[in-house]
Amino acid sequence: MIEHISIMSFTLQVLIFSSLPFIFALLALKSYLSSSKHHKNLPPSPPKLPLIGNLHQLGSSPHRALQAMAQTYGPLMLLRLGSVPVLVASSVEAAREIMKTHDLIFASRPSLNIPSKIFYGLKDIGFAQYGEYWRQVKSIAVLHLLSNKRVQSYRQVREEEVDLMMKKIQKADESVVNLSELLVSLTNNVICRVALGKRYDGRKFKELFARTGALVGCFSVGSYIPSLRWVDRLSGLERKTDEVVKELDEFLEGVIDEHVSKKGERVEYEDLVDVLLDIQRDNRTGFKLQKDMIKAIILDLFIGGTDTTFTSLEWAIAELLQHPRAMKELQQEARKIGQGKSMIVEEDLEKMPYLKAVLKEVLRLHTPLPLLVPHESTQDVKVLGYDIPSGTQVYINAWAIARDPSKWEAPENFIPERFLNSSIDYKGFHFELLPFGAGRRGCPGIQFAVVVNELVLANLVYKFDLALMGQEGLDMSEINGLTVHKKCPILVSANPY
Ligand code: HEM
């Protein structure tokens, strides 16, 4: 018996001793792995508070706060918003690495609570995560909804709406014109007629879309600190979102029913709901387009296309009113091209280089979505030598890049002339000017937006001499919503030319 035990203990000792190198190797590997995790070369980070991280540092103008932080921490910073790691890119080089060199890795979007509810579980284009579904719906947008040919086909709608706005201004005679209000109506009417086939200009409709835009642009605590999701419930945010979702769905259901029932009738032009229903019917794209997807895509076009277009027009007029010399230059160009015609039409726009330069300068100084739409990485990757883990959210501070003094001369000044002899434009190839983003997630509505902006601006300055009403200068303060827009409306007197 004793012999048996001693044989056993001897075997045990042999086993332990022979395993020791293996155990040491395991411990060494574990310590190497955990130390390499801690010694990853992460981008610089400002100090953070427990639970909220850097959230408190964003303030009411995150693009400005982040620009100031980048001056201390550099063009690539890693913040923590609640529990979410957020990479902030504030230079041309950083933006190019993210949206060109590693575009595929950064082509996803974070899943945010409010957009998820509003866009039918992220079945839209703008918030859908990267993958086969997004590829399908983005190609529907690029090839069928927002292609050159399709945008051209709505020329009459745009010209009619611009003409209508001019008539309203003329009617105001010598009295004050609230240009901001007219520009909101115009952009709304254009998108309604193009997307839904008719104007919806009742107060209820406008309010519903204003509430939707505000919710999409608003910050939900639960998206960043999941353990505090109850705050969104307590603050009423969840209830407001649920109400909007219900009303939007009833509205969109009605729009689709109306389109289905009128099928076969002769229509003046095919609107975007018609196009989507056609794609659904003949299964053209090789995948089944469900009703919820159609509703989410239509909502995307509204939310993505209205506020952004209106905001850039409003800032354009504001800058021109502040810079009479630029206003005069643009007026001379328009009046030379218009030559007494009743209005400037779309063919004329190609002959107006100063107009194009004004719009570029406006989009540079007043990038409507200054941080674009957040991207998210789907793999570990190195950017400018730093390790960026998979699942990191990314903000590109396009607004700060467009004011970077190492890339732009007198970056804070409004100087349209800087674009006259320059090849820089906003289509996503020049990373110093990114109002529409770049790469796979770039905006598919550039042409749609630019032609409206150019047509409206050209005609406003062609037909009227605009002057501020009883104000010394214009209040240029901005306010953050879905886009960064002017805080105060533009009130002018408009004397017919
Ligand atoms: C001045 C007007 C506009 C500006 C400044 C603008 C800007 C942007 C920006 C910054 C993005 C995100 C890019 C990124 O994440 O890298 C975007 C995406 C998008 N925009 Fe626009 N946009 C404008 C007009 C429009 C219009 C008129 C439409 C459609 C009618 C539209 C539809 C979209 C859609 C569907 C996306 C999502 C693309 C995706 O995620 O793949 N936009 N836009």
UniProtKB/TrEMBL annotation:
Residues that bind heme: C443
Transferase in keyword set: no
Pfam families linked: p450
Keywords: Heme, Iron, Membrane, Metal-binding, Monooxygenase, Oxidoreductase, Transmembrane, Transmembrane helix
GO molecular function: heme binding; iron ion binding; oxidoreductase activity, acting on paired donors, with incorporation or reduction of molecular oxygen, reduced flavin or flavoprotein as one donor, and incorporation of one atom of oxygen
Biological process per Gene Ontology, one example term: sesquiterpene biosynthetic process
Annotated metabolic or biological route of this protein: Secondary metabolite biosynthesis; terpenoid biosynthesis
Transmembrane spans: 6-29
CC cofactor: heme
Entry-linked PANTHER family: CYTOCHROME P450 71A2-LIKE, CYTOCHROME P450 FAMILY 71 PROTEIN
Protein family (similarity comment): Belongs to the cytochrome P450 family.
Name of this chain's protein: Cytochrome P450
